[in-house]
Amino acid sequence: MGEQSKKVAVIYKSKxxxxxxxxxxxxxxxxGDLLENFxxxxxxxxxxxxxxxxxxxxxxxxxxxxxITDNFRELKNKQIIVFAVGCSPVTEEAINHxxxxxxxxxxxxxxxxxxxxxxxxxxxxxxxxxxxxxxxKFKIKMQKKGELDEDTKAxxxxxxxxxxxTDEEAIAPIxxxxxx
Length: 180
Fold this sequence. Notes:
alpha/beta; 2 domains; two-stranded antiparallel sheet; 8 strands; elongated
């Protein structure tokens, strides 16, 4: 929170607002420039020392991550931090699955990755997302009640009762990473 000598770009691609909220908190804490992903080109990032990219998760894919993966050669000499936002609990297995799905070995070695929990409000989803989530709900309901863990039960409950896991304190490790 003290003097920030690095020039930091905090880029986000948010579908329902949680990723944008985290990006705003991060940019404010490090006095970085807050940029929407669809407006950013790799040439715009050349004057930055640190690139922080946040994207919501969609079927394990990080929205907007192509800005990093498609332009890694031009960005590899910069500090790169990527965070993904989803509703699933933070587990090592989930984090590894996301990393392996989104990044090559070369990129994995050069970035710092973080997973943050967002919000879920079924009523605010667009039609396609509602249909996908209904399919998931149906699949879950096909399981026997005794086979459902607490996280799965909570997910089912969230269809009727919106949840919001966003927490400004969750960005602390990202801020530490930026300031290294």
